[in-house]
C-alpha cells in the first residue's frame, strides 16, 4: 500500500458529521411523533492528515493475534410515539455533549434488507427507550440516499432527528474545502459513459462514471467519482477476479497533489472516518456491516478518535463447511478487534462461549418488536393461506419451499402460499412457479408495507431458510399470533419456538416433515388457534422495553470502557 499525505477536514454541508448542524424489509410504516433535535457534535474544523500516521498502515506481521478458540477450519402493531426523558425510560444516563453513538451501516434504502430494518428499529428504540439519538453512517455510494432519508423520516420510519452520514459525500465536502486535488480522468478519448448522479439542495451531487475493463469489455475496469464539472475526486480500479472484477486500488490526492492508495474498501472507509469525524467526541461505534468496517480497530480511526467498537453479528458466523465467514473472521482471530460482540440469540451465544469467546465481551441482544404483540384476527378461521416474508435470495430457500408446498397441495388442494419481498431471484422464482402449473396456489409478490394486512389474511407462517441471524419475519409472525413452521437452523428459530408452544420446529432440509407440519395445522384450525397464544407469549419477550434493558447494560459497559481508556487514548495498545 502506498501512503502519502492526505489532509482531511470537516465541511459545513449538511449530511456530514460536523460542528453544530445537523426484510427483508418487513414493516416500515410506523409513525412516531417528531421530536426536537438532540444536541451533539460531529466534526472538527481542524484539518486532519491522512498520511503515514494518517493513511491506513498495514498491521505489523510480527504481532501475535490472540484467538478466541476459533480456527479457520473448524401487520404489525403500530409503533408507539416515543418521548425522550432525561434518562430514557430505563433510567439510563443520556450521552453528554461529547458522546455520540454511530451505527455503521452499508446502505439506507426505503426497501432495505434485514440489517437496515434492524438498524432503523434500533434507532427508534435508542431514541424512545434510552434517550439516545444515534447517528447512522453508510458506506455505499448512493445517489438516492438523501431522497431515501427524507422519505423514511416523512413516513415516521426513521426518527426525524437521526443524522445520516455518507462516506462518499465526504469527498464533496473535502473538495469544497480545498483538501483534495482532482485526479486525471481515465475516460478514453471520445467516450461518453453514463454517470449516476442525483443532485440535492444541500450540496453538489457526486457522480460515478464507470469505464469498461481493457481485459474484458463486459467488466468494469475503473470507476471514477467526481463532480459535474468533470473533476475526479476518487478512483477505483479493478483487476480480473474469480467470476468477475475484483478491487485493485482506490486512489485520492491531497491538497498538495500527493496520492494515497488504499488496497481495500475497508481501508478507504476507515481513513475517511478518521479524517471527517470530530476528534473531540467519544464515539461509540456499533458495527452492523462488519466486512466493510473490519479494519476499524487496526486503522487510523482508532488512533485518531477516542472510541469504542461493538460488532453485531446479524447472521451465522460459520459457513456450512465449518470455516469462519469472511465478514466475521477478524472478530474471532483478533480479540482486540472489538470491545463488545453482540449476538441476537441465546443459541449463538452458547456456541461462541463453547468455542472460547470470553463471556465478558459477549452480549445477547435480540431485535425488538416495534409495537405490542396482539392477536390480529383472520377474515376466516378456515383460511388456508400460508405466508413467507423474505428477500428473494438463495439462503431463503424459496425453491425448496415450493417443493414443500407441492406436497402440501396433494393433501390440501385449496391451500395457498403467498411470498412477499424483493431480491435478485424474484423473476426466476416466478418463472419456476409459472412453469410448474402451480400459479393458482403459489403467489410471488413484491414488497408490501402493510404487514398487518398480510397477517390478517393468513393462518400461519413458514420459514424454510438455510440460515438466519434472528428472523424479523419469524418474530413478527409470533407477534401477530400466527404459528410458525420453521427449520431449526442456526440461529433464531429455536429461540423463538423451542418449548414455547408457538409453532413447529423441523430438522433442516426435511421437505416432507415440513409439508406434514403445514398440513397438520391447515387441517386442524383449532390446533393452529391454540398455538396463537403461545406465539403471543413468546413474542412478548421481545418488546421494546425488555430489549432496551439489555441495550442499557451495553451502554453502561461501553461508557465504562471509554472512561478507563482515558481521553483520546488509542483503542488498542498496538497498531
Detailed description of the structure:
GO terms for molecular function: glycosyltransferase activity. Keywords: Glycosyltransferase, Transferase. This is Glycosyltransferase. With 575 residues, the chain is an alpha/beta fold. It folds into three domains: 229 residues, Glycogen Phosphorylase B (Rossmann fold, 3-Layer(aba) Sandwich), CATH 3.40.50.2000; 72 residues, no CATH class; 158 residues, Rossmann fold (3-Layer(aba) Sandwich), CATH 3.40.50.2000. Helices cover 28% and strands 19% of the residues. The strands form four sheets. The chain has a seven-stranded parallel beta sheet with strand order 5-4-3-12-13-14-15. It has a six-stranded antiparallel beta sheet with strand order 6-7-8-9-10-11. Helix 1 crosses helix 15 and helix 8 packs across helix 13. The longest helix is centred in the C-terminal third of the chain and has 22 residues. The protein starts with 6 loop residues before the first strand and ends in a 10-residue tail after the last helix. The N terminus is likely disordered.
Amino acid at each position: 500500500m502506498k501512503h502519502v499525505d492526505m489532509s482531511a477536514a470537516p465541511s459545513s454541508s449538511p449530511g456530514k458529521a460536523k460542528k453544530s448542524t445537523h426484510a427483508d424489509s418487513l414493516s416500515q410504516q410506523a409513525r412516531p411523533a417528531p421530536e426536537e433535535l438532540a444536541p451533539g457534535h460531529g466534526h472538527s474544523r481542524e484539518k486532519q492528515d491522512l498520511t503515514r500516521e494518517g493513511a491506513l498502515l498495514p498491521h505489523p506481521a510480527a504481532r501475535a493475534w490472540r484467538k478466541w478458540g476459533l480456527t479457520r477450519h473448524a401487520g404489525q402493531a403500530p409503533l408507539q410515539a416515543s418521548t425522550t426523558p432525561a434518562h430514557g425510560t430505563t433510567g439510563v444516563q443520556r450521552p453528554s455533549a461529547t458522546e455520540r453513538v454511530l451505527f455503521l451501516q452499508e446502505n439506507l434504502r426505503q426497501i432495505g434488507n434485514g440489517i437496515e430494518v434492524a438498524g432503523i428499529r434500533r434507532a427508534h428504540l435508542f431514541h424512545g427507550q434510552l434517550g439516545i439519538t444515534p447517528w447512522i453512517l453508510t458506506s455505499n455510494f448512493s445517489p438516492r440516499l438523501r431522497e431515501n432519508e427524507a422519505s423514511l423520516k416523512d413516513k415516521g420510519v426513521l426518527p426525524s432527528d437521526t443524522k445520516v452520514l455518507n462516506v462518499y459525500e465526504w469527498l464533496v465536502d473535502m473538495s469544497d474545502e480545498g483538501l483534495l486535488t482532482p485526479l486525471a480522468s481515465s475516460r478514453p478519448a471520445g467516450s461518453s459513459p453514463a454517470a449516476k448522479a442525483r443532485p440535492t439542495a444541500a450540496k453538489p451531487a457526486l457522480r460515478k462514471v464507470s469505464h469498461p475493463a481493457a481485459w474484458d469489455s463486459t467488466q468494469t475496469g475503473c470507476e471514477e467519482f467526481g463532480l459535474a464539472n468533470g473533476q475526479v475526486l476518487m478512483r477505483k480500479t479493478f483487476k480480473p477476479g474469480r467470476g468477475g472484477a475484483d478491487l485493485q486500488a482506490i486512489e485520492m490526492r491531497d491538497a498538495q497533489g500527493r496520492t494515497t492508495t488504499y488496497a481495500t474498501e475497508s481501508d478507504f472507509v476507515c481513513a475517511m472516518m478518521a479524517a471527517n469525524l470530530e476528534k473531540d467526541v467519544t464515539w461509540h461505534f456499533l458495527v452492523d456491516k462488519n466486512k466493510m468496517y473490519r479494519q476499524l480497530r487496526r486503522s487510523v480511526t482508532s488512533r485518531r478518535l477516542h472510541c469504542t467498537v461493538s460488532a453485531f453479528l446479524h447472521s451465522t458466523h460459520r459457513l456450512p463447511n465449518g470455516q469462519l465467514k469472511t465478514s466475521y473472521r477478524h472478530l474471532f482471530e483478533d480479540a482486540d478487534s472489538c470491545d463488545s460482540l453482540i449476538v441476537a440469540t441465546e443459541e449463538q451465544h452458547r456456541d461462541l462461549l463453547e468455542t472460547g469467546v470470553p463471556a465478558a465481551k459477549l452480549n445477547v441482544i435480540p431485535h425488538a418488536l416495534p409495537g405490542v404483540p396482539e392477536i390480529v384476527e383472520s377474515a376466516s378461521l378456515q383460511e388456508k393461506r400460508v405466508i413467507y416474508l423474505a428477500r428473494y435470495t438463495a439462503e431463503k430457500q424459496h425453491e425448496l419451499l415450493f417443493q414443500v408446498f407441492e406436497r402440501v397441495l396433494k393433501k390440501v388442494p385449496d391451500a395457498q402460499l403467498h411470498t412477499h419481498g424483493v431480491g435478485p431471484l424474484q423473476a426466476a422464482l416466478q418463472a419456476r412457479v409459472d412453469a410448474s402449473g402451480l400459479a393458482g396456489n403459489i403467489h410471488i409478490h413484491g414488497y408490501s408495507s402493510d404487514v398487518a394486512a398480510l397477517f390478517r389474511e393468513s393462518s400461519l407462517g413458514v420459514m424454510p431458510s438455510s440460515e438466519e441471524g434472528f428472523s424479523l419475519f419469524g418474530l413478527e409472525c409470533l407477534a401477530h399470533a400466527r404459528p410458525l413452521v420453521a427449520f431449526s437452523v442456526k440461529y433464531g428459530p429455536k429461540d423463538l419456538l423451542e418449548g414455547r408452544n408457538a409453532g413447529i420446529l423441523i430438522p433442516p432440509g426435511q421437505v416432507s416433515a415440513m409439508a406434514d407440519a403445514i398440513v397438520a395445522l391447515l387441517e386442524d384450525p383449532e390446533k393452529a388457534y391454540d398455538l396463537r397464544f403461545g406465539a403471543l407469549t413468546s413474542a412478548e419477550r421481545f418488546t421494546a422495553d425488555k430489549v432496551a434493558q439489555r441495550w442499557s447494560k451495553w451502554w453502561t459497559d461501553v461508557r465504562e470502557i471509554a472512561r478507563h481508556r482515558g481521553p483520546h487514548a488509542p483503542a488498542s495498545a498496538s497498531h
